[in-house]
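To whoever is covering the structure queue this week,

Two jobs came back overnight. Logging them here so there's a record in the thread.

Job A:
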Amino acid sequence: MEKTVKPTLKLNYKRTFLIGFAFFGILLFWQVYDSWCPTLLSELFKDALHTTDEKSVQYLVGVVMAMDNLAALILLPIFGHLSDKTNTRIGKRMPYILIGTFVCAVAFPFIPVFYHYNNVAGVVIMMAIVVCFMMMYRNPAVALMPDLTPKPLRSKANGIINIMGYIGGAFATVVGIVFVLSDYLGTKLLPDGSPAPHTWAYNNIWALEAPFLIASVLMVVSAVVLFVKIKENEVKEEIADELRLGEEMSATEDKVDDDKPMTRANKIMLFLILGAEFFWFMADNGVGTFMGNFTVYHLGASTSSNMINTIIGGVGSVIGFAIGGIIASKIGRKWTVVSGLALSLFAYIIWIVGTFTFLKGAAGGGQFPPIIWVIWLIKGFGMSLVHLNSFPMVVELCNAKKIGAFTGYYYASSMAAQTITPIALGSLFLIEDYFDWGYLPVYAAACLVISLAIFMFVKNVKTNKEKITVGLEAIGSDD
């Protein structure tokens, strides 16, 4: 009688790396978008309103950035559900990835073109188009990893594809340093030595256009590599046994059953994770949205200083993504996330203490305090542990037929936070007597405290590791 050999779980590093090209394009896009668009909007609003009042301008910037996120909040679950129901020759997710990438790549470079000609409406419309189609791309691209990775291996796989994403983000940041925004703004003088109005109309547009254009080209390249190298339907058929074994070993309080409704225990776990996620994105995105303006308008420093800050934070994130899966395999995903939130909170506390003590003289000094680079390194490492493990915890709670929908839930929570937090912070800036730039880390720390308190109620469930291949054996068959 022939002996039946059970399949073992081993992460296919080569395939995971290739899936990571989707994340490369996503973070490349968002890094350029978040680094440049708030400042472009600030300059346009100041000129349109004939004002130098930073408070009212930052409120309007927050509203516009929030409207983009509101569109994403609506569209992400829709595209996730649609891709779950899609069945084509090239797969469930690939049609959305290809169409979304193409439209974004065409529309994205027009943002600086409209800005160059001082067209507020054109900039806002182009931002809306690229955000809407990025959502068409983003949800299916993110869902592709859990589609093609057994449940117990998703934290490690998430680490690899996030490293690929941060390479994309770092590349965008380096491009931004080469084509520095401050070298484009405010450099043209009239013959009498006074600043020229509509400065952007006199300067070389390529200083501003290049990061957007390069991002578009690389987004297309990453999507083409993904399409050519990852045959979605074929891979899913090849690893069907591994996916089934992964379902049996899932780290959930109750077993996930395809034919039964979600259990109460698993629903509670889902709501707790999404609730905590909402508040950590309130913190992270709030600071991220306004950090460029904090650098320019509060510190009076060059935008390249914040771009270096972003790279340093990315280094911390990459370290976390590289070892976060290993940490989770030792102490469980819950405590890895808790550790990441605590580290990030510690980083903000350093910033808060510094704001009211040794950083007091930094405002308007024209220099970027190096201590903030240290803070960003710690925060980058901490938040990478959070992001690395929280997404697998959400898709762990669903079956293979609903990965797109649950990916939508995960990103709906984050986008709800990213919709609210720019408006909340923008509104606080209007309270001049009580809230200024120095309170930015206080806001973030308060949100993280709430997030940490919620997440402590999530049950820690560790995966049975007996059938997971580790060490050299785990990387021996990646073809």
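Job B:
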Amino acid sequence: MKRLIPILMLAAACSHNPVVTVEGGKIQGTVKDVVVAFKGIPFAAPPVGEFRWKAPQPVVPWAGVRVCDHFGAPSWQPNHVPTDGYMHEFFFDGDPEFSEDCLYLNVWAPEKGENLPVTLWIHGGAFSYGWGFEPEMDGEEWAKHGGILVSFNYRLGLLGFLAHPLLSEENPEGTSGNYGLLDMIAALKWVKNNISAFGGDSSKITIMGQSAGAMGVKDLVTSPLSKDLMAGAIIQSGGGIMERSILGDFSLKDAEALWKDVMVWAGYTTLEEMRSIKPQDLLNISRLYSEATGKYPGFPAPVVDGIVLPETFDRASLEGRIANVPYMIGFTLDDMGGLDSGIERFCAVREQAGTPAYAYQFARRLPDDGRPGILTGAFHSSELWYMFKSLRLSWRPFTPGDYALSEDMITAWTTFAATGNPSWPPFTAEYPSFMIFKLDSKDAVASAMGTPLEP
């Protein structure tokens, strides 16, 4: 059953809920305890019609006060199904309504404060799934720990990452395919320009992502359009310096040829025809193409286009051209294959560059209730419940030790955002250690520096 996103309401501000001015107009948030939340703030114009497959456009101004008390719709994506363990884990309330009009962000901030550290969260999902307000990504506890958390939706799948020679031809810069990445950059620029209205320090922005979101972080610290806009970066389950990225990093030429072949097979040979495709129909094109031809095109993802992404993260890291900021980087004990690789190499390169890299492993295998089909272990994404301290929103039988471990983790993450140091030593040649987040047999926090545990 789909959760309905309420229709936008414009209203006069209630006296007990704060109103701030941002790009586009005035917005009103809601207060809970000591946290104020603004949900569904537009950070760009709806990327629909003529704006499909174009860089995000300036936000459309509104009159009056926009009540930001509900989340904006996520980008079109396949529905989660019961056979997907992640449906049981994070999407147990069902999927929300999806829309091509998806460029909205959310802000959680302490009710009072100024010059606060800011973290911009980039959700994962193979660049084809997910949204910025999944239950595990709740920002209430983050704000209670003295930081501002911003999450957002970006264009996914073929809406976000279709490279095609006709799209490159119409673009004055001669590129295509990185629309979702440009959405991430637009969200970061929005934070830079507007976060002071919420008490944030625009010079102290940390970008943070997990899985595909971590790969988005790697792209943002590489892109000349964004790498000077952040003070720190957190890469969770996105690998380090690898031989080849698990997602993305195709050349523009290769990506154009691939997706042109898919579109021609589907019967779309002009931009007018492609822009007439219903967004829900775009979801099926890759699958149908694969079934018919036996060729699997893979997930649409960022491409090396020479402009937005002039080179790969690996090359830029090795040659000293990524953002010169502190980094946190890590993975989970039972992570997906390859996402634990290249981390030590990345940390060594950062040591040579003179900026710290703090490595970690999440090694707590989550408690469960024995139901079939659920995810077990310290699986990919399992740390999210802990570093957001959102365990209260999960069905899992978490223990007092889990809550204590979560407190340690959210403290480390928010401390890094505030200071550039999570309160453990950086990985160096002299001290090549990870912080291992775990519990002992007595359900007590037993996290310590050391060598990563083996699955």
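Note for Job B: Residues 215 and 425 are 24 Å apart (CA to CA).

Please reply-all if you pick these up so we don't duplicate work.
Q.
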